[in-house]
Design brief:
Helix content is about 50%, strand content about 20%. Helix 7 packs across helix 8. The radius of gyration is 28 Å and the shape is globular.
């Protein structure tokens, strides 16, 4: 397999569902252009990708993730996934684009169901701001992928090699996200770019554990249309490989969100340093990212304290005793403290003059 394919694969490890939708489209195209071109090649890859090997890979490469269900691509699951699409909640334009894609559906995948510890606010932030998520990868020197917001809920993606795509957020609720992507993959081996369209439905829920941890569980349905019959035919032949890569993409995306949430909670200083390096986003979004880090760290400490039976006091609660003492003193600037007994005899502090000294 060409080294350029491996490089692009690393560049396409994205951190939000919007980018996953785009990269899923491109993976099918990458495989069609650079992947195995015979059934024998596909069979060899399938034989190596045993269930045991996949399980070992999940344990070693995705720490902190729990895989509830594997991915599926059966006709029954596809039929169910199409029926579950929230068409009635989409705009007329979004309905038209979705129905056109489903009419010429070339590939479907129900991605694995994964559970992981994550701050819901961090998860929601990256879904609503995929350009910030991609910018963090550039800040960490992992990828030079570009994702620019062109208008609300619309993004322009550019891999820097002629491969471009338009990502549109069709719908987002606390539990459901629907994204559409229209991408064109440019390969030096092909005279013209290969076009593909994707629709992804992401379903997410959060639960709170007894120890205070917040566990998110999500899965996704990906629908891909290949306008070219030739590309679609090749994609179907190597579908097992395409599905494996789509699953891996989703696992890597989930791991990124999990680790970013953990880092914000436990190592906010390091994340803030990354925040100073963010490029390609408006200053206001950079400020919002910094504020998110501060809130996530504070909320994590609060949850841990509550789980351990430690009382958390707000600033007003901390100041209340001092204000009460001040109001009970002999004057507006009094700072007398009491000894806690019934007679509430004032306690002399180091900077107070005793009555005996005054009488002398």
């Amino acid at each position: 397999m060409p080294h350029t394919f491996l490089q692009r694969k690393l560049l396409c490890i994205m951190s939000t569902s919007a980018v996953l939708c785009l990269s899923t489209s491109w993976y099918g195209l990458l495989l069609a252009a650079d992947g195995p071109n015979t059934a024998a090649g596909t069979s060899q890859i399938k034989s190596r990708a045993t269930a045991r090997e996949a399980e070992i890979e999940d344990l070693t490469q995705y720490p902190g993730l729990t895989f509830v269900k594997p991915g599926f691509s059966t006709k029954a699951v596809r039929k169910q996934a199409v029926a579950e699409l929230p068409m009635d909640r989409l705009s007329p334009d979004a309905q038209h684009k979705s129905q056109a894609l489903l009419k010429n559906l070339g590939m479907f995948r129900r991605l694995p169901t994964i559970s992981f510890e994550c701050d819901p606010e961090v998860y929601d932030y990256f879904l609503k701001n995929p350009d910030v998520a991609v910018s963090t990868w550039r800040a960490m020197d992992i990828s030079q992928f570009q994702l620019q917001e062109t208008r609300p809920n619309h993004y322009r993606a550019d891999a820097g090699d002629g491969s471009v795509g338009d990502v549109e957020l069709f719908l987002q609720t606390p539990t459901e996200t629907l994204i559409h992507c229209d991408g064109a993959f440019k390969s030096p081996l092909l005279p013209k770019p290969i076009v593909a369209r994707s629709l992804m439905r992401l379903h997410t829920t959060f639960t709170k554990e007894q120890d205070g941890r917040i566990i998110g569980t999500h899965s996704g349905d990906v629908f891909v249309e290949f306008p070219s019959p030739t590309v679609e035919a090749v994609a179907k032949v190597i579908a097992p490989v395409s599905h494996n890569i789509a699953d891996r993409n989703f696992k890597q995306m989930t791991l990124f969100v999990h680790l970013m949430s953990q880092a914000m909670a436990r190592h906010p200083g390091w994340i803030e340093q990354i925040g100073t390096k963010l490029d390609g986003i408006p200053p206001q979004k950079r400020l919002q990212f910094m504020e998110l880090v501060a809130r996530s760290s504070s909320e994590s400490r609060r949850r841990m304290a509550v789980a351990n039976g430690i009382q958390i006091l707000s600033p007003d609660e901390v100041l209340t005793p001092f204000r009460q003492v001040n109001s009970q003193g002999s004057g507006p600037n009094s700072t007398q403290l009491t000894n806690g007994t019934a007679d509430t005899k004032p306690i002399q502090t180091a900077n107070q003059v005793s009555p005996a000294t005054t009488q002398k």
